[in-house]
Please model this.
Amino acid sequence: MAYGDYVIQRDLNFTVNRGDIFVIMGSSGCGKSTLLKQMIGLNRPAKGSVLYDGEDFWAATPEAQVGRQRSFGVLFQAGALWSSLTLAENIALPLREFTGLPAELIAEIVSLKLSLVGLAGFEAFYPSEISGGMKKRAGLARAMALDPQILFFDEPSAGLDPISSRRLDELIVELRDSLGATIVLVTHELASIFAIANNSVFLDADTKTMIATGDPKALAQGEVEKVRNFLQRGGA
Amino acid sequence: MTARDAADEWREWLVIDGQADEPCVQLTGRWSLRGVVPRYVAVAPRLSHARKVRLSATELAAWDSSAVNFLAALIRDCRARQIDVDQSELPDGLRRLLTLAFAVPPPAERRGPPQATGLLASLGQHAMNVWRDLPAMVEFAGEIALSLGRFCVGRARYRREELAWLIEEVGPRALPVVSLISFLVGTILAYMGAVQLALFGAEIYIADLVGIGVVREVAALMTGIILAGRTGAAYAAQLGTMQVNEEIDAFRVLGVSPIDYLVLPRMLALLLMVPLLTLYAGIVGILAGMMIAVGVFNVGMYEYYNETLTALELKHFAVGAIKGTVYGGLVAFAGCLRGMQCGRSAQAVGEATTSAVVLGILLITISASVLTIVFHKLGI
Model:
């Protein structure tokens, strides 16, 4: 994984299981977001492959890639809501593009998604009119629009207060349990990591490779010192 | 179609049985957003006599949001009519999602979807906006004047390297497009004039026409319009994006005037470069005219040169340069004003950019007529 000649991470090898809440962690600038972009098909890895159900994403035809991406839901760091559309239109767009549902049913589903993230009644608001935390939740509602099998989150709790952050964590777990979705998160919020994750990979900026993978609760007591330090906040 | 028919039509997904006052709604089959799914309103009449509804999904093969949506609509309707809904037989995931959907009640005051305004109303709205815009423009002009004052006494804070970069961006980098446009405009002028003048055998006066026309009016006007599209738009987009990222607020909190730091260098860069660009455009226009006169209408090169020298006086260049400077100042004004007024979204940046170009060209045209009349009255 590299930008031009500049290698960011090499020799990554890990598995995300169905139904996992999987965390990509590591210090700032170690390539977490880049790894996420390669998993969701935005950036092609310099080498290697990303397998979904045993199929190599990057070796597939463009049509197959788009088909695969349709089973993804992605929540970008700042929500990435389309600013010229209302929240309802933001969530309706994927439904309108990729399903043949009638407009009234789409409107109902949009309201349902908004109420799932606690934003019932905000259909007609523009992204610029709501707070950062609400934008995140609205972004989540859009990511869930097509009932994805895999939900990707880039720093979901960045910029949120501890309570909103915890609510979002609870929502993530709730969605995994009720929809049976797989969740992949990039985060370095220790509280979130311990509260919700059951699997993880740790990227190291110095050696430019992964140095641990597994349940973060086990890694916190594990053998790799760097990971232990990270998970115990450099203390202990 | 009766309610019973509607329900039968959805038999693949839905079975309603039991007594009329205590029906049991069973979801069956595959519920998917990608396929056809029943809506609650289609079967609602079947529950009109119900006093208690039991939900069941024991034979549900697959479900997604479509099923949640259906059940949420059913439960909402039943709650409104104070009917008991028994959810205990639903799968765990479905029940939890339904709980989540009703966890936060919608606010009492709901906003409707954005209303389209009528032609007359939006015309009035625009007129009001223009009216409200005027004081803002005057205020902005005042702030710039104050900032210019600070600059003149050496107390304005700005980065010299940024000014140099802006000057390069506005001046030398605009030369190719200015050359091309002035060359073509000179050609057009020469042709238009020559066709008429040739009727009298007076082709030599192409030199007067092109020389005075280009230097006094056309060079400044074309340069102004090019800069409105090239530089005014860039200013609006730069400042607008900075507004979106709260960069301008960051200047304000530091106690650094964004007018001094961002607007002033941009104004200065244009004001310094535009007279030069205008003179340059004038010379290119004259050369183009000469090429046409000599090449197409058989005027001697030396005669043309001589005639141009006799026709052109220093005051023509001065008029051109003054007009150019005014246009440049207005373009910078429009660009910076719209950039600083920009809202905080991608769409707002687009609107600011468009508006900067439109306002720039509008101001150029207004000032062009005013200046032409003024110079005429003054006899320059």
Notes: The CA atoms of residues 275 and 321 of chain B lie 5 Å apart. Chain B touches chain A through 35 residues (CB under 8 Å). The longest helix of chain B spans residues 206-244.
